[in-house]
Amino acid sequence: MVSKNTHINEVNELLITMVQNKCINPPGTELKSILTIENHLKQRNIPCKIIESAPERGNLIAEIKGEGSSPSLMFGPSHVDVVPIGNESAWEVEPFSGIIKDEQIWGRGTLDMLFIVATQVQAFVRLHEEGFKPKGDLKLCIVADEEAGGIYGTEWLMKNEPDFMKVDYALSEAGGIPITPGKLLFGTGEKGAAWKRVSFKGTPTHGSMPYKSDNAVVKAAIAAEKLSKYTPPINLDYIKIMVNGLGLNRITRFMLSHRLLLPIVLRTAHRQNPVMARLLHALSRMTISPNIFHGGTKTNIVAGEAYLDVDIRTLPNQNDEYIEKQLRKAMGKLGEEAIIEQPPDQPGFFTSEGTASNPESEIVPFMCKAVSEVYPNVQFVPLVVAGATDLRYLREQGTQAYGFSLFDPDTPLNTMAKLPHGPNERVNLKTVEYSLMAYYNLAKEFLGQ
């Protein structure tokens, strides 16, 4: 039997190779890492299938068939594409080196989410090599294109491999994150994503006489400020679920569960723990972030056109009609003349609605047990994550899908929150080892005879 240390070495090597494959999206070219995983599996005589969705873009699926009918479990969908690096001078190491430094593997994509890909693949390998006979099917699904909405990845598989993608439970990003001693966040749902273009018309005239002019840039600037300061209706449902899991004292629970007191809590939290404040804020409402501003044609011409591109994240059950209503309300009188529409396609553009799974489903106690074998006396805290993931596609068809892995409990939450999509992205070697053990333990316990 292959030793535990061998599996740890193999998972680290797989992770480093995927970092070095440099599958930046756009354009993707994820087939490089998909072929790396295929080779990793075939060297161990494990059948798998590559499904190409476009040139140089592909997905990989594999399966250990169950001896019964249910439940079925999927490792994934987990993505191998990564975002661009931004300013390379902000990095301490070459962003695609995959070097090990300070007991961490460095490089773009290590946290988002190549360490999960590598540990899920290796847990699948270990179970296969041990001759594991699950009650229900154990599926492995590694995909392309999550960073641009999943069109060539999970969405493509849902349309072209529907039988494989039909599964009772699925595990992907993001979860197993330490929030307080003995408490780990696990993703039970996610907010929706909607980008909107808010445009204004003006009357072009000579810029030398701007008094009382009808300036579209001024309108857009005022609208941006109003949108950034607006407070959409507060929904405490998802904060309450998280607060109950944290086991906070009665006074703190009361303050976090009261609409009038929540702003005070957020201001206090921001001074002490900015990441926690941003998380609580995002959990309590639709968020509006005007991030791109464009207008005018020439410096000496009063602007006849201007627009804002706005990133909007919605809670479950907040639809497009709700979004437009809130945007117009936020802008006041300007909202009456604003043109609100979907922006033209941009790299990474997609829309999605918020989704949520049952935080007390059949698999959750097994998740806790799998983690406790590595990290004793741990408790899970349900979280609706602010960003969108591929798990939304599975939830929409009825799958109970969760963000699940296991981070080194000594990893500071504030530090970890800055790394995905940022410079010096890296993952702790212990996080890789612990996640590998957690996936292996969970599949064996939940699907075992």
Can you tell me about this structure?
It is a single chain. The chain is of the alpha+beta class and 449 residues long. The chain has 2 domains: 4-190 and 355-447, Aminopeptidase (3-Layer(aba) Sandwich), CATH 3.40.630.10; 192-341, Alpha-Beta Plaits, CATH 3.30.70. Helix content is 38%, strand content 22%. The chain has 16 helices and 17 strands. It has helices at residues 4-21, 31-42, 110-129, 154-160, 162-165, 216-229, 237-246, 250-256, 262-272, 274-283, 320-331, 334-337, 364-372, 391-396, 413-418, 429-447; strands at residues 49-54, 57-64, 73-79, 100-101, 104-106, 138-143, 169-172, 175-180, 183-190, 192-201, 287-295, 305-314, 339-341, 355-356, 379-385, 400-403, 426-428. The longest helix is centred in the N-terminal third of the chain and has 20 residues, at 110-129. The protein is globular. The protein starts with a helix and ends with a helix. The mean pLDDT is 91.
Q: Which features characterize this protein?
A:
Aminopeptidase, globular, alpha+beta, 16 helices, 449 residues, Alpha-Beta Plaits, 4-stranded mixed beta sheet
Q: How many DSSP-defined strands? A: 17
Low-confidence spans: none
State the distance separating the first and last CA atoms: 21 Å
Q: Based on helices, strands and strand pairing, what is the structural class?
A: alpha+beta
Q: How helix-rich are the residues, as a percent range?
A: 25-40%
Overall 3D shape: globular
Please tell me how large the radius of gyration is.
Answer: 23 Å
**What is the CATH topology descriptor of the largest domain?**
Aminopeptidase
Residue share in β-strands = 15-25%
Strand line-up of the largest beta sheet: 1-2-6-3-7-16
CATH class of the largest domain: Alpha Beta
| Known CATH architecture of the largest domain | 3-Layer(aba) Sandwich
Average of the residue pLDDT scores: 91
Report the sheet with the most strands, covering strand number, pairing sense and barrel closure. Answer: 6 strands, mixed
Number of helices: 16
Name given to the CATH homologous superfamily of the largest domain: Zn peptidases
Into how many domains do the coordinates divide? 2
